[in-house]
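Module 6 notes. Inverse folding takes a fixed backbone as the condition and produces residue identities as the prediction. Think of it as a translation problem where the source language is geometry and the target language is the twenty amino acids. Below is one complete input and output pair. Work through it position by position during the lab.
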């Protein structure tokens, strides 16, 4: 999945840092490993990637973030033109988001807390990603909006992403999940937590056409079922791991397009299993 800047720290998660409520500025650094590079349920790289990232949050409402994606293998068969990218970074994502949580104390008619966010992200591809031509890859920009209800049991989160450069497409994702405390901690955050979730994506015609999934219609895109385990090693350090299954379940045309998309040329299925680990430090 793409990094989503707009909903970062909306619900005040542990990974955002316990100090976020006490100081006007907090920072987070993360190093993540993913078995595949996935976008919208599509494989952009069938080999593992490593993603270091950093974010700074100001006054609990403004987040600035940057993430770099590194290839770990000699993968270079995308469209038959890319060379050896082992050890090179293949994408740089930078963005910012303004987020706020409204509570019944703030707005009398609200029955529960509501988190809202709006953000901007720039996706940069280095010159060695330019199909062997020496030109930059297809850079693009996104406007992203998010809505969360963190106090409800299913913790619904809605994300709307608008690509304003490459395909002018819109992608909507709805996620439902719940965090279970397996081992309680000293404070509010559990020492060990497990969060199962399910998410469904929806793309308009411009988005599905931009990824060669269909020429004439949008529809329900990827369904993702995920389980994530988070171990809070200390007050400012957390280790998390996940396993996920994704597929194009509900639209046969888009499912056939997903089977044909695979960027590495080594897979012909619309379903994929992925896994990953991340170490996150917050200050």
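Target side of the pair, the amino acids:
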């Amino acid at each position: 999945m793409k990094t989503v800047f707009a909903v970062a720290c909306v619900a005040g998660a542990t990974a955002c840092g316990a100090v976020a409520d006490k100081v006007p500025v907090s920072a987070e650094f993360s190093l993540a490993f993913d078995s595949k590079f996935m976008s919208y349920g599509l494989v952009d790289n069938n080999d593992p990637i490593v993603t270091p990232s950093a974010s700074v949050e100001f006054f609990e409402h403004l987040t600035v973030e940057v993430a770099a994606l590194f290839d770990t293998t000699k993968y270079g068969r995308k469209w038959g033109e890319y060379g050896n990218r082992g050890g090179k970074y293949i994408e740089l994502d930078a963005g910012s988001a303004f987020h706020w949580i409204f509570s019944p104390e703030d707005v009398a008619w609200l029955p529960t807390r509501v988190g809202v966010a709006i953000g901007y992200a720039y996706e940069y591809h280095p010159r060695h990603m330019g199909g062997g031509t020496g030109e930059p890859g297809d850079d693009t920009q996104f406007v992203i909006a998010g809505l969360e209800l963190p106090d409800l049991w299913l913790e619904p989160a809605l994300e709307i992403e608008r690509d304003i450069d490459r395909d002018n497409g819109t992608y909507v994702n709805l996620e439902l999940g719940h965090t279970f405390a397996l081992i309680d901690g000293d404070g509010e955050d559990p020492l060990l937590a497990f969060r199962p979730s399910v998410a469904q994506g929806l793309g308009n015609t411009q988005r599905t056409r931009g990824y060669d999934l269909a020429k004439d219609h949008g529809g329900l895109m990827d369904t993702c079922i995920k389980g994530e385990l988070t171990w809070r090693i200390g007050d400012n350090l957390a280790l998390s791991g996940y396993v996920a299954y994704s597929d194009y379940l509900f639209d046969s045309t888009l499912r056939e397009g997903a089977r044909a998309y695979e960027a590495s040329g080594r897979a012909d299925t619309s379903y994929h299993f992925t896994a990953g680990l991340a170490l996150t430090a917050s200050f």
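Reference fact for the lab report: The two ends are 26 Å apart (CA to CA).
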